[in-house]
Amino acid sequence: MKPGRQIFSTLIQCVMLGMLLHTAAATPPGPRVGLVLGGGGARGIAHIGVLRVLEEMRIPIACIAGTSMGSLVGGVYAAGVPLDEITDRLSGIDWDDLFTDDPPRTEKPFRAKSDDFKNLFHLELGQRGTKVLMPPGSTAGYKFEFLLREMVARSGNFARQDFDHLPIPYRAMATDIENGTSKEFRDGDLVKAMRASMSVPGAIAPVEIDGALYVDGGLLQNLPVAAARGACADVVIVVDVGSGLLPRDQLNSALGISLQMINVLMAQNVRESIESLGPDDVLISPELGDFSAANFAESMTLVETGEAAARSKADQLRRFSVSAEDYQAWRASVAARLPTVPPVTSVRVATTSGRVNPQVLEGELARQPGIDLRAHPESDFSLENLNTRLEQVYGRGDFERMDYHVIDRQGTRTVEVQGVEKSWGPNYVKFGLGLASDSDQTRFDASASHRRTWINALGAEWRNDLQIGYRDELTSEFYQPLTLGSGVFVAPRLDLQREPIVYYLSGRRIGDYRVEHARAHLDFGVQNKYGEVRLGAFAGKLNAEEDFGILTFVPDYDLTQVGYNVQVTFDQIDSPSFGRNGVLAQLSSFGTVGDWGSEDEYNKTELLLLGAKSVGNHAVQLAGYVGESLSGDLPNYDPFLLGGFLRGSGYRMDELVGNSVAMARAVYSYKIASLPPPLGRGVYLGGSIEATRASLGINLDSDKKIRPSASIFVGADTFLGPAYLAFGHAFSDDNPNAIYLLLGTP
Description:
The chain is α+β, with helices and mostly antiparallel strands. A 16-stranded antiparallel β-barrel has the order 16-17-18-19-20-21-22-23-24-25-26-28-29-30-31-32.
């Protein structure tokens, strides 16, 4: 070899050796210890306790392999996040919110949350031709990604990175759901790898990486011992937090059998992994009993359980301990492997060929300090601000999930944001049921809703709502925004409705009106997250036929109606049915005008004010309602109606009538249980005191006096809608009582 070439070769070798020494963690004496953290949902929080003991015993970890929750804890720890910081962050998580894709209800546009006032299930399906499409999971899981990106930000959030170059080398296990094989992530996007590893089938949507679709790694490798050995390990410390098999008394439902099928798959591969352990390996199995893998709300209590399990293996673990000096040197070398992360210099929205106009995202991110660096170049980019804003954008209802990745180029860093459109759109359908029963009657309604979204670049939407049962109704509306960002819209609408208006006399039902109308509306308005203002004019026909038997108390009508409609809603409450915090105000005014060609002329105006406040599990809700006719008397075919649960409890539904009515109520509720986010919010025990002013009888102006009442109830805020079992008592007249069973709001 020529002398010059030999010198050059020697220099290259020296540089490569220097780079290797810089990137490799110091190797303490003794065997290289690989840590294997298994999956187990909420039970995986016990891993934190094991890590605490390993740190106390000065056991250096040469590499980590994790599955599911083990991949989360292990990946964040491998990224160089101190254990105390991991503990503090996980302790402060609102797990119910993390498993719910929607932002807080107060942050959603009014149009996206208006379904809360209808008898519709929360589950939204897709429709293409004759096919009905399901979402890929009960939650998209993008909030998990946002959380993980914040937690591992110090390791760079690089779009492509070698996991051997993390502060602690790392492996994550997932399952390729298309071909049924196990996938060991050794490089790539660290957050995507962790997220793929914890995608529980049916609960959290799968993750697509490089064209493949991945779900929870525990299906095939819940204890990835082989991955740890392949990464570095001479010996392994294995932490098994799996729940094992369900007992026979829990195998009495389709859900129980389905869970057992998954458990059988996991138990088999866990058994194989444990059987592969050698005499120098250590198996730690925390005593978690029947603690549920879904009980994240109480999962931090398992940290001590993990500690106790690790301490019980102290004799076996002690042989891996090193001196204080060697351990500190190892810790210092781990910290030195943290990369230099360039600052974010720009944020942009990915251009796609999808339906949703990308300017929607651009507009939502614009003028936000810490996000839009073009408008605010002096502000520091903040992942927390970006994540919060993208959660709010998700609340529009256009996207399956929110996503972003980092592009590094020549020392600069760009965050590219993408709203991933719903794969089951752009036609959406919802179904619903409404049931209301008191001591005298039962009302039942079935509902269906169809939406065709993004008909044009401004986000036009065609919506059709159908309800049949006690009240039959068909509404078809074309909603056309006039600009992308202002919320101003025009909405032509067709409204067909048929319903009975029941009349009572001396507490006895004497008959009802069968009232039908067909109206064409043209509305103008503006909407945003605070609510909606809508003004419109209408024209149509009304037919009212009495059904009172032999005696005729009111005449029949066949009328032309022309008039106006005004609706103003301020909606900043967390739930219209079980409000615990916030305010809801609704004003509606409907009128017919003789000068416009209407054959009747009257006004019907209603105002509802509702406020709620909670402390812990306790909540108080105060509400007031007023109904007045601002001009003319209300006709018998369109009176104000009260009576029924929380509307004059103790009276029958719609037993109280009037030209002018009022109601005030106070409701106390106590949250006795939480429901998993896919199923609902909670179960409540409560009671109310109410006062109504209305007539008791067919004459709208007779006997208007204050009628106090009260109720006690058990209620649940479910994905099917609000459900109640209640008892009501009225303290007037003959002290009527009623037992109510309700689902939705018929």
